[in-house]
């Protein structure tokens, strides 16, 4: 359960170039299910996901993740919580160049320091699940767009997070690959993972598997279509 | 710990990935370390040799000054100084330099207190024989002060306690010395002596000037101090500090010029984004910096050691020694000085590590949310 209470975010606060990216927002996200945040460019979707995923601190308000207040955590514990609780699929994948697919997937788990053979096994299992088993030893620069995205998803899942956050996951994908993404996301949600995506892609917003659709405009939430009880 | 193994592993891949950049960096860096270390090692050796020389230096040397210049001193002064309370063993010394035109070299002539060979015999340092042009049948041809040829036979060559002291030395009898240099009977180059009580040296020196106003006493402690400051200035900590600062600045400038590339920034952002904390990111960067700077340090120090002690510092022959003609094969003995290595380490590895860490740290403490947006 993620509980946002009056969260706002202003970039460059107190300066002449201050940008109010999020107006005070309150929102509850139940565990499990597929939630999509939609809205025009600049409406604050990415900012909302960042704040939830502890990528940056909100200017005001509090966030509770499973009852635990996260906005006042120290950098060290915020990183810890981010690693354990959230998995990220970034808009442009952001894989680390010069490393193999397998290495990229395991990187988020390095600070945990678990035995290598176990970590490797989990990474290979994820690759298998995402039909990338034969790409394990490849450099990430030698992959197609769809493959890159699935590697990014595998990386997001390596620490078995309870929340998967994906920003514009289908931006660079053709329809067939976009469908493939939705399939995997729905699959994960069905397994009990909370999937939270931001998108203005109608293929995502109108997909049947999306449980909750949140609309944003100018940093505010609009009326939500709730299909969940 | 497993964590550390992962971070080390990550570092190794990073290093390998930028291997050309790192190789270039290590090349430049170890060249700097090499230069500084060479100077330091060289200074250590000279200082050690100087200490050995000075051990045998008399406590007081008395020179005579005429018109502000060092002049021959009457041997009778020895008796006068001997009367001063506390002064002991005052004796005249004969020594000087001899220029041999054919070899284009200066040699040091000296009359030891206990010279046991005949007047036409000499004892020499091994540097002499090596450089003396046309030495034949163990004979060296000198010219006396009237321009007459004077063949002297080599009776013995120094085994040499330190090469620096004896390399250019020629020992001879007093009579021969006077013939070659034209020093008249009853005069000496200077006087040397001892002081009974170390605390009295200054008093004795003052008394000498009082009774012999044209004399100038020189105390060993003054010489020691002069040597030390000389070496400190030339090759000591001041130099290290200056070079260290230069090195830091140089690398800083270089690093700024190449910058923390967009790719490196992105990498730091991604690592933080996927759950590494600032400490983890800094750790891999410290490992990276340490790998580069330690490698450069080891290469530079080893090269400097070979340069100074195996090859006898060819780079500094002319710059630092000044007696270059005489010491073409001057051999410096290795001195291991932990202090020197420590200072070197402190002024080379530390600044580099700090300087390279600074931009990383500035990126690493920022919120990682930039990774969510376009990073290039
Ligand atoms: N680091 C920043 N500094 C200043 N302003 C920022 C920063 N990041 C985002 N903004 C501004 O905050 C507002 C919200 O941005 P955000 O990226 O959340 O929008 P978005 O809905 O994700 O847009 P898009 O659909 O284009 O990704 C925009 O006006 C943007 O210009
Ligand atoms: Mg966005």
In brief, what are we looking at here?
With 229 residues, chain A is of the alpha/beta class. Chain A has 7 helices and 11 strands.
Question: What does this entry look like structurally?
Answer:
The complex is a heterodimer of chains A (229) and B (376). By secondary structure, chain A is an alpha/beta fold. Chain A has a single domain (2-9, 21-226), classed as P-loop containing nucleotide triphosphate hydrolases (Rossmann fold, 3-Layer(aba) Sandwich), CATH 3.40.50. Chain A is built from 7 helices and 11 strands. In chain A, strands 3, 6, 7, 8, 9, 10 and 11 form a 7-stranded mixed β-sheet that branches. In chain A, a hairpin with a 2-residue loop joins strand 4 (60-65) and strand 5. In chain A, 45% of the residues are buried. In chain B, the strands form 2 sheets. In chain B, strands 1, 2, 4, 5, 6, 7, 8, 9, 11 and 12 form a 10-stranded mixed β-sheet that branches. A two-stranded antiparallel ribbon of chain B has the order 3-10. Helix content of chain B is 54%, strand content 18%. Chain B is elongated. Chain B has helices spanning 2-17, 19-55, 76-82, 126-131, 163-166, 174-181, 201-211, 220-235, 237-258, 262-273, 278-310, 317-321, 338-364, and strands spanning 60-66, 69-71, 73-74, 87-100, 105-111, 121-124, 139-143, 149-157, 169-171, 187-188, 190-195, 215-219. By secondary structure, chain B is of the alpha+beta class. Chain B has 2 domains: 2-54 and 228-375, no CATH class; 91-188, Barwin-like endoglucanases (Beta Barrel). Chain B has 13 helices and 12 strands. Residues 320-330 of chain B have low confidence and may be disordered. The A-B interface holds A 46-47, 49-50, 55-57, 75-76, 78-80, 82-84, 86, 88, 90-92, 94-99, 103, 107-108, 110-116, 155, 159, 167 and B 1-7, 10, 13-14, 17, 263, 266-267, 269-280, 365, 367-369, 371-375. Bound molecules: adenosine-5'-triphosphate and magnesium ion. The site of adenosine-5'-triphosphate has 13 residues of chain A, from strand 2 and helix 1.
């Amino acid at each position: 359960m993620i509980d946002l209470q009056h969260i706002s975010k202003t970039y460059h606060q107190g300066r002449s170039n201050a940008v109010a990216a999020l107006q005070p927002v309150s929102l509850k996200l139940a565990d499990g299910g597929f939630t999509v945040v939609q809205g025009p460019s600049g409406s604050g979707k990415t900012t909302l996901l960042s704040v939830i995923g502890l990528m940056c601190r909100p200017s005001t308000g509090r966030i509770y993740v499973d009852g635990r207040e996260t906005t006042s955590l120290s950098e060290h514990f915020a990183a810890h919580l981010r690693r354990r609780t959230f998995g990220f699929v970034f808009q442009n994948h952001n894989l680390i160049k010069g490393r193999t697919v397998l290495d990229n997937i395991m990187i988020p788990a390095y600070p945990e320091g678990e035995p290598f053979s176990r970590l490797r096994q989990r990474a290979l299992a994820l690759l298998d699940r995402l039909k990338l088993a034969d790409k394990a030893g490849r450099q990430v620069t030698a992959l197609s767009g769809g493959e890159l995205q699935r590697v990014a998803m595998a990386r997001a899942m390596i620490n078995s997070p309870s929340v998967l956050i994906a920003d514009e996951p289908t931006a660079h994908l053709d329809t067939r690959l976009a469908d493939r993404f939705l399939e995997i996301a729905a699959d994960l949600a069905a397994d009990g993972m909370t999937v939270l995506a931001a998108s203005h892609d109608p293929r995502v917003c109108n997909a049947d598997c999306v449980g909750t659709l949140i609309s944003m405009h100018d940093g505010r939430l609009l009326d939500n279509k709730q299909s969940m009880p | 710990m497993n964590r550390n193994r992962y971070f080390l592993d990550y570092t190794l891949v990073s290093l390998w990935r930028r291997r050309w950049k790192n190789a270039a960096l290590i090349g430049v860096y170890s060249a700097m370390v090499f230069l500084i270390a060479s100077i330091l090692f060289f200074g250590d050796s000279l200082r050690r040799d100087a200490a050995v020389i000075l051990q045998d230096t008399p406590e007081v040397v008395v020179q005579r000054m005429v018109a502000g210049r060092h002049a021959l001193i009457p041997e009778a002064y020895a008796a006068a100084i001997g009367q001063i309370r506390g002064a002991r063993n005052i004796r005249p010394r004969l020594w000087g330099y001899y220029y041999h035109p054919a070899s284009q070299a200066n040699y040091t002539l000296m009359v030891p207190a206990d010279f046991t060979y005949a007047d036409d015999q000499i004892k020499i340092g091994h540097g002499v024989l090596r450089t003396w042009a046309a030495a034949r049948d163990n004979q060296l041809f000198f010219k006396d002060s009237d321009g007459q040829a004077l063949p002297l036979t080599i009776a013995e060559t120094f085994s040499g306690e330190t090469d620096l002291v004896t390399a250019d030395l020629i020992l001879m009898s007093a009579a021969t010395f006077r013939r070659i240099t034209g020093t008249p009977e009853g005069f000496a180059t200077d006087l040397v002596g001892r002081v009974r009580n170390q605390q009295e040296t200054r008093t004795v020196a003052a008394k000498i000037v009082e009774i012999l106003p044209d004399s100038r006493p020189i105390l060993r402690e003054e010489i020691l101090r002069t040597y030390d400051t000389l070496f400190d200035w030339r090759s000591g900590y001041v130099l290290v500090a200056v070079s260290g600062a230069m090195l830091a600045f140089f690398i800083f400038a270089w690093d700024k010029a190449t910058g923390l590339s967009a790719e490196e920034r992105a990498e730091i952002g991604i690592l933080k984004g996927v759950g590494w904390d600032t400490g983890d990111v800094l750790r891999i960067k410290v490992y990276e910096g340490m790998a580069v700077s330690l490698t450069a340090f080891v290469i530079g120090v080893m090269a400097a050691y070979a340069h100074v002690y195996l090859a006898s510092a060819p780079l500094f022959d002319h710059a630092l020694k000044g007696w270059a003609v005489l010491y073409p094969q001057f051999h410096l003995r290795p001195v291991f000085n932990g202090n020197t290595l420590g200072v070197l380490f402190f002024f080379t590895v530390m600044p580099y590590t700090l300087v390279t860490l600074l931009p990383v740290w500035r990126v690493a403490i920022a919120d990682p949310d930039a990774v969510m947006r376009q990073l290039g």
